[in-house]
Fold these 2 entries.
Entry 1:
Amino acid sequence: MKFRSLALAAAMSTIGFGTTVASTAAQAQAKEQFFPVIVYRTGAYAANGGPWANGYVDYLKLVNAKGGINGVKISFEECETAYATDRGVECYERLKGKGATVFQPLSTGITFALTEKAPIDKIPLITAGYGRSESQDGSVFTWNFPLLGTYWVGADVAIQHVAKQLGGLDKLKGKKIALVYHDSPYGKEPIPLLQERAKLHGFELDLLPVAHPGVEQKATWLQVRKNRPDYVLLWGWGVMNSTALKEAQATGFPRDKMIGVWWAGAEPDVKDVGAGAKGYSALTLQHGAEPNSKVAKDVIALVHDKGQGTGPKDEVGQVLYMRGLISAMLGVEGVRKAQEKYGKGKVMTGEQVRWGLENMNLDQKTLDGMGFAGVMRPVQTSCLDHMGSSWVRVHSWDGANWKFASDWYQADDKLLRGMVLNASRKYAEEKKITPRTPEQCKQ
Amino acid sequence: MGFFIETLIGGLMAGMLYSLVALGFVLIFKSSGVFNFAQGAMVLFAALAMARFSEWANHALGGDSLLLANLIAFVGAGLVMLLVAWVVERFVLRKLVNQEGATLLMVTLGITYVLEGIGQTVFGSEIYNIDVGMPKDPVLMFESVFEGGILINKEDFIAALIAALLVGLLSLFFQKTPVGRALRAVADDHQAALSIGIPLNRIWVIVWLVAGIVALVAGIIWGSKLGVQFSLATVALRALPVVILGGLTSVPGAIVGGLIIGVGEKLSEVYIGPMVGGGIEIWFAYVLALVFLLFRPQGLFGEKIIDRV
C-alpha cells in the first residue's frame, strides 16, 4: 500500500514537472509563427506533391535564414495526406491545435471539406491556383483566399489563348473544344465557365472525364479521335497528365493543339514523355520554371548550400517547386501585412492573418525586392476580392524545357465577376450566410 | 464501322495487358490458395527496381549500351523479386500453413503496404522511365476500306504479343513440368502435398518468384507506357474484375477474362459513357464481371468448389 502511494506521488510529480516543461516550451514557442504544411509525398500524386512541398518548406527556411518575419521565426510541421480528403481533414484537425494561423490544403477536395470549418476555427485558407472559384468573393467566403487565380481564371485564359491562335474570339464559332478532365471536384471546376464561353462564342464543348488516377485513358482518346476536336484542354493532375500526352501521341492528336491547366504544366507531367510532348502548352499561375530568379538563387545560397535543403538541389526553380515556394511566400506576406497593423515582431492569430491576407498589396517593387522580378506580377486583395490577381502566361514544352510561349493574359473580369457573384450568393443562401457589405469590410 | 473495330482492337490489346497482371493473381492462388492482394504492389516494386537499376547501369556503362543496361537491370530486378519471394515465404507464409483464406488475404494486404512503402523509400517516389525501345507512334491501316482508317498503337500491339507469349509459357510450365504439377498439388491441399514429400517451403518460394517475374514483365510493359510511379500499383484494380470473371484458378481464364473486360470497358465508355456523363469504364468492368458471376459463380473457367457438409 505504502509502495503504491509512493509510486502514485512520484507519478503525479512527474506529470506536474512534465506540464511545467510543456508550458515553458509552449511559451518559448509563442515567439514563433507556426505554419502547418499539408503535403502529399506519398501516393498516386507523390511525384507532383513532392516538389511543391520542398519549395514550400525551403521558402519558410529562407525566411528564417533572413531573420524571420520582422524577427518572428517560423516553425512548421508537415502532415501527409496522400491527396486523400479524409486524411487532409485529419491533418487540419491535428495541426489547428498547434497554433496554426493559415492553412494551404493543396487539394480542391480538401478545400471543399474545410471551407465550412475555417470560419468556426477562425483560420484562413490559402488556395493559390485551386479550390472553389466562387471563393474569390470575400464578402461570402470570408476565410478563403484563392490567391493568384482560380480555375475559372484558368479556363477563361485557355479560351482566350485558343481564340488568339485562331485569329480572334469570333473564330471560335463552330469549333469543337474537348475538355479531358480529372473526374473530381478539381477537374469539374472549369466546366461552368467553359459552358458560359461556349454559349457566348458558339463553340461546341465536349466533356471527357477520366477516372482517378488516370492511368487508363484509351477510351477517352478513342473518343477524341472519333469527335476530332480542334483543341483539347487538359485538366489533369499527376500521372493523368503524362498518360494523356502519351495517349495523344498514340492516337495521333497534335500536341500543339493541347493546352493544360497550370497543374498539368510541370516537369513531372512531361519529363518521361520527352519529345512526345513537344509543342504541348500549359497555363502558368504567373510563374514558370524559374531557376534563374533571384529568389531561387537565394534558396540555393542560404538554404541548400548550408545543408538545410529539403529536396534535391537541382529541383530548385522547377515549376511545382516555384508553386510551393510562392504559396509559402503568400502566407508569409499575409503574416507580415498583419504585423503592420497588429504589431511588428509579434506572433499573429488566425483572425489577424486573415486581415493581412485581405489587405495584401504586393506591388512590383516589393516583389522585385523579394527576388520575384520576372516571376510574378502584383497581387492586391480586398475584402471583396480574395484572389488579388488574374494574370496568366502560357508556356510550352520544347522537348527538354518549359519556355514561355505567350505574353501576359488577364481573365475577363466582367464575365468572371458575374459568375462569381451568382455562385457565391447561391452558396450564401444555401448556408444562410449574410454577405458582408463594403461598410462592414472597413471595420 | 471502322471506329467500332478500332475500339474493339484497342479493348483487346488493353485486355491482354490486364491479363498479364491478372496472371499474377491466378498463379499464386492456383499454387497456394492465397488471394494475393499485393500483386499490384509487386508490379510497382518490380518496375521501380527495373527502372532504377537500368538508370544506374546505363550511367555506369557511360550511356553506351541501353540494351546491356536493361539486361543487367532485368537480372537485378529478378533477383530482387527472388529476395521478396524468399522473405515472404520465410517470415510470413511459413507461420501460416493451413490457415484460413481470409487470414492469408489479410496478410497479403499487409505485404502490399510494406512493398509500397519500402519501394518508394529505397527507389524514390518520382516518375522514372523504362526505355525498352517500344515504338510510341501509331500506325494507320485499312484507310482504303474504312473512312479515316484504323489506328493501331504499335506499343500496345507488341505488349499484347509479349503477354500472349508469357501466358503460353506459363501454361506449359503448369501442365508439363514436375514443378508445375507440384504447385497444383500444393494448391489442392497443403497437408496432403507435404505428406507425399513435396517441399512446401521451396514450392512457395518458387511460386512467389514466378509471380514476381510476371509482375516484373507487367511492370516493364506498364512502366514503359505510363512511366514508373506509384499509380502502377493501382493497375491491379483493373485486373480484379478479370480474375473475378475468368476464375481464380485458370490461366486461360485470366486471358479470356482480360479480353472480355478490356473490350467491355472500352465499348461501354465510348458508346454508353456519353449518355451518362462518361467516366464509367472502371465500375462497368465490375458490373460486367458480376453479371457473369450470376450465371457462373466460379467464374468462366474456375473450378467448381464442392465442400462436404
Entry 2:
Amino acid sequence: MNNSMSGKKKSGSILSHAVLILFALSALLPLSLVLLNSFKDQKSIVRNPLSWPETWHFSNYAEAWEAANFGRGFINSILLTGTTILIVLFAASLAGYVLAGNRIKGTKFVTVYFMVAMTVPIQLFLFPLYFVMAKLGLLGNVFAVGVILGAVNLPLAIFLMKSFFMNIPRELEESARIDGATTRQLITGIMIPLVRPGLLTVSIIVGIAAWNEFLVTSTFLQGQNSFTATLGFLSLNNTYNTNQGLMMAASVIMIAPLIIFFLIVQKYFIDGLVSGAVKG
Amino acid sequence: MQMRKATNYLLIAPSLLLSLLIVLIPGLLTLLVAFTDWDGVAVSPSFIGMQNFQEIFEDRIFWKSLFNNAQWTIMFITVPVVIGLLTAILLLRRKRSRSAYQLIFLFPYVLAPATNAMLWLNIIFNPVSGVVGYLKNSLGMSITSPLSSVHTALYAVASVDIWHYWGFLTVVYLAALRQTPGDQIEAAQLEGCNSWQLFKFVYFPSIKPTFSIMLVMIIIFSFLTFDYVYLLTGGGPAHSTEMLSTYAYTFAFSAFQVGKAASVALFMSIMGLLASCLYIWLSKNDLKG
C-alpha cells in the first residue's frame, strides 16, 4: 500500500518535471537556434539550421553592428527609454502619493480615468497625434517619442506607485505632520526613501516596455538618424534576407543585453508584473 | 490645512496634464475626425456624418478583421491560460527549482516583439533558411511556411504571440496561488481531498479575483493586438490575418484616409471600453481604498 502510494507519487513527480522541462525547452530552443546560427554563414544555415557550426564566423557580429547602425541605435534607445523613465517616475510617484491617501476630491474619478487610459487602444490617439507632431516638426525626435511613451505607460506606473504608497503606515505621515513637516519635506524626506523599491520596480517595468515598444516608435521615428536599436534591427530584414548569419548575430545583439539585464533585476521585474496583476 | 489641500492638486497635475495632452485630447480629436473625410493634411476637412462608418460596415475586410480578432480572443483565453495554470500549479510544489523555471519561462516575454517576430520569421518559418526550409528541402517533407497560407497564417502568428506571452501568466497565477491561506490547504488535506479537489475547492476560489482580471485584460488586448501581426504578416496573405488594428493603421498611413482610420479606431475603443467597464467593476475593491 505504502509502496504503491509512493510509487504513484514518484511517477507523478517525474511527469510534472517532464512537463516543466518541455515548456522550458519551448522557450529556450528558438533562442538557442538564434545563438547557434549567429556563428554560421548563409550556406551552412540553409544546409541545416539545426547543426553545430563547422567554422565559426565571428565576423557576423561586426558586420551586423555596422549594417544595423547599432552604435547610433543603442544611444537613441537609451535616450528614449531614459526620457520615458524620468517622466514616469516624476509624474507617477506624485500621483501615486495623492491617490493612495485619497487626498483630493476627485480621487475616484481620476482613478477611473487612468484605468480607462490603461486599456484604451493606442490607435485611438495615434493618428491625430501623428499629424500634430508632423506639424510641430517632432517626427524623428527621440525625446518627444519618449514623452509619448511616458504618457502611454503612466497609468500602470501610477497604480504600482499607489500600491507602494498604500503600504506606508498612515501614522508615519501623521507624526511627521505633528513635527511640522511640509508636504515637500514629507514626500522627499520620508515617503520617497520608503518607496524606493517601488521606484526601482516602476523604472524597470516601464523601461523594458519603452525599450521594446514597436507601434509608437516605428510610427514616429523616421529617418535613419532617429532609429532606435529595434528599428535599426528591423531595417536589416529586407536587405539581408539572404545573409541569415548576419541577421542572427543582430538578433543576439538585441537579445543578450536584455536577458542579462532581466537576470540582474529579476526580483523587481517579477514584483512589478505580479503587483500589477494579482488581486487580493 | 487649506494650503495642504491645494498642494495635493498640484501634485496630481503633472500626470493629468501629460495624459490630457497625449491621450485624451488626441483621443477626442479622433472622435471628431471619425465623422470627417480628413486626409491628414487638409486644414478644414468636411463633415460627412456617418459615411465612414457606413463604408467600413459595408467592407468585407472590416468584418474579416473583427472575426479574426474574435478568433484571436478565443485562442488567447484558452491556450496560454491553460498552459499558465498548468505550469503554475506544477511549480507550486517545486520550491527549489521554481525561480529558475520562472526566469526561463519569462525570457520570451521580456524580449521585444520585433526581436521575437524576426526570430520566428527567419530561423523557424523561413522556407529557405529556417527549420521549415530544412524539413522541406533536406528531409523532403511537403510543408511550406505556415505564414504564407491563408488557412494557417492566423494560427502561426497567434502561436508566436502565445509563445511570448504564456510565461507571464505562469508568474501571475503562481504568485496568486501562493497567497492561498495555508490553513485552508491543510484543512482540505485532512478531509482527504485529492489534488484535483484541492485545486477546485481551495486554490481556484482563492485565485479567482486575479484569474478574472487577467481574463478581462486578455480580452481587451486581444481586440487591440497589433505588433506580432504587423511584423509577421502585415495582415496578409489576402487579409487572412487582418486585425482591426492593422486595418485602421493601413487606412491612416498607406491610404491617408485618416477619417476612416479614426472611425475604425473608435470602434476598437468602444469594444475596449465595454471590457474596461468589466475591468473597473471587477477591481471596484481597489476604488474603495
